[in-house]
Specification:
Helix content is 29%, strand content 31%. It has 366 residues and is of the alpha+beta class. The strands form three sheets. Strands 7, 8, 9, 10, 11, 12, 13, 14, 15 and 16 form a ten-stranded mixed β-sheet that branches. α2 packs across α4 and α5 crosses α6. It is elongated and about 100 Å long. 30% of the residues are buried.
C-alpha cells in the first residue's frame, strides 16, 4: 500500500495513507474551507442572487500527483472535487442564506485547488420584448466606424461610430444603469435597414444583460425607464424576463413582415401598368442573389423567398406607395429595383423602367 501523506478528510475518503498536516492530495484545502468561503462571500456582497453553483478544478502539480496515483489504481480526483464542492457549498449557504443549485444558478464559482484562487461568473439576465423605431438613420446595433474600427477619427467626428446611436444603445443604457451591469447586447428577430422605421407592434428582441449586480427589478419599472430615456425615438413594449433559449428562438425564426414603401420611377407609370406589375409580383417565389450593398457582410448566394399580398396605397404618375407582405429575409429595396438583375422578378423588370425605394417602413413583424 502506498504511504502518502493525507489530511483526515482524504484519509476518511480513501481509507489509507499517513495522516499529516501537509496533505499530498488536496494541499490541505479541506481544512481551509471556512476561509475560502469567507473570501468568496466577501466578493459576492455587491451582487444580488439567490442560487449559486460551486465547481472546482485540479491542475499543475496537483494534477500530476493525481495522475501518478491513477497508475496504482487510485482514481481520486473526481471524488475529491465532489466532496470539496459539497462542503464549500454548505459553508457558503450558511454564510449567505443562498441556495446551492445546479439547476439555473445565477452565479457560478469555480475554485482552483492548485493555488486556491477562484473565478466567479455572474450569469446574464435575459429580457424579451418588442421595439418600435420611430425615426430613421439609427442602426439596430452598435455600428463601428469602418475607417477607425471604433477608435475615433475625423470621418466619424471621433465618436468611433458610423451612426450616432442605435436601438441597442438606446435600450441598453437605462437597463445597464438599473441593473448595475457591465453591458447589454441586443439580439433581434432580423433587422430593418438603417434608413427604415420599425412601426406597428414592433420587432421581437431579447436583451442580454451582462454581469448584472442587481437582478430583481419589477419589469414594469424596467419598461418605464427605457421608454422615458428613449424620449420617443424608440419604444419598447411587452417586456418580460426570459432565458438564453429564447435568444435562439428569436434569432432563428423566419417571420413574415409587412412593409410600406414609397417608390419613385424614372418615368410616369399608368395605373393599369402598375396594377398589372403588382399582380404579377404578388404571391411569387423571388430568386434573390445577395444584394451588392450587403455583400461585404453576407455570403454571396441565391435565396428563395416568397411575396404575399402587394397593395397599391397611392399612385401619382412617377410615385407609388405600396404595402408589401413577404417572407422574412427578402430584401424589399432590391425587390423593387432588381439590383441589376440579381433579384428576379422585380418591380423594375416587370415595368421595364428604373425604380427605387425612397422611403421604407416595416409595419409589422408577424
Amino acid at each position: 500500500m502506498l504511504e502518502i501523506k493525507v489530511c483526515k478528510h482524504c484519509y476518511n475518503r480513501l481509507g489509507f495513507g499517513v495522516i499529516s498536516k501537509n496533505c499530498t492530495l488536496c494541499c490541505n484545502a479541506f481544512d481551509r474551507i471556512g476561509e475560502f468561503a469567507e473570501r468568496i462571500v466577501k466578493y459576492l456582497l455587491e451582487f444580488e442572487f439567490t442560487r449559486f453553483q460551486i465547481g472546482s478544478r485540479v491542475r499543475g502539480s496537483l494534477k500530476a500527483v493525481h495522475e501518478y496515483l491513477a497508475n496504482f489504481g487510485i482514481d481520486d480526483e473526481k471524488s475529491m472535487k465532489s466532496k470539496f464542492n459539497r462542503l464549500l457549498s454548505i459553508e457558503i449557504e450558511r454564510l449567505t442564506g443562498k441556495k446551492a443549485s445546479n439547476a439555473n444558478p445565477e452565479v457560478i464559482i469555480t475554485f482552483d485547488l492548485e493555488d486556491f484562487s477562484f473565478d466567479i461568473k455572474v450569469l446574464p439576465i435575459y429580457i424579451y420584448g418588442r421595439y418600435v423605431k420611430r425615426i430613421r438613420n439609427i442602426s439596430q446595433t452598435r455600428w463601428l466606424c469602418r475607417f477607425c474600427n471604433g477608435k475615433g477619427c475625423e470621418v466619424c467626428e471621433y465618436t468611433g461610430k458610423r451612426y450616432y446611436t442605435s436601438v441597442e444603445e438606446l435600450i441598453s443604457k437605462p437597463i445597464v444603469d438599473l441593473f448595475k451591469a457591465k453591458d447589454a447586447i441586443l439580439h433581434g428577430a432580423g433587422r430593418e435597414d438603417v434608413d427604415a422605421r420599425m412601426l406597428g407592434s414592433g420587432r421581437p428582441f431579447v436583451l442580454e444583460v451582462v454581469e448584472p449586480k442587481r437582478r430583481y427589478i419589477p419589469i414594469e419599472e424596467v419598461e418605464r425607464a427605457v421608454n422615458d430615456y428613449c424620449k420617443g425615438k424608440v419604444m419598447v413594449r411587452g417586456l418580460r424576463y426570459t432565458n438564453a433559449k429564447e435568444v435562439e428562438v428569436v434569432k432563428g425564426e423566419r417571420r413574415r413582415k409587412v412593409y410600406r414603401a414609397k417608390v419613385v420611377f424614372d418615368r410616369e407609370i399608368s395605373r393599369e401598368q402598375l396594377e398589372k406589375a403588382v399582380e404579377e409580383l404578388s404571391y411569387k417565389e423571388i430568386h434573390q442573389r445577395t444584394p451588392k450593398r450587403v455583400l461585404h457582410r453576407r455570403a454571396d448566394l441565391v435565396r428563395i423567398r416568397k411575396t404575399y399580398g402587394i397593395e397599391i396605397l397611392l399612385h401619382r404618375g412617377r410615385i407609388a406607395v405600396l404595402r408589401i407582405e413577404a417572407d422574412g429575409g427578402l430584401y424589399i429595396k432590391e425587390l423593387v429595383n432588381g439590383d441589376e438583375g440579381r433579384t428576379k422578378p422585380s418591380l423594375a423588370e416587370l415595368l421595364g423602367c428604373d425604380a427605387r425605394v425612397e422611403k421604407l417602413d416595416v409595419l409589422d413583424v408577424l
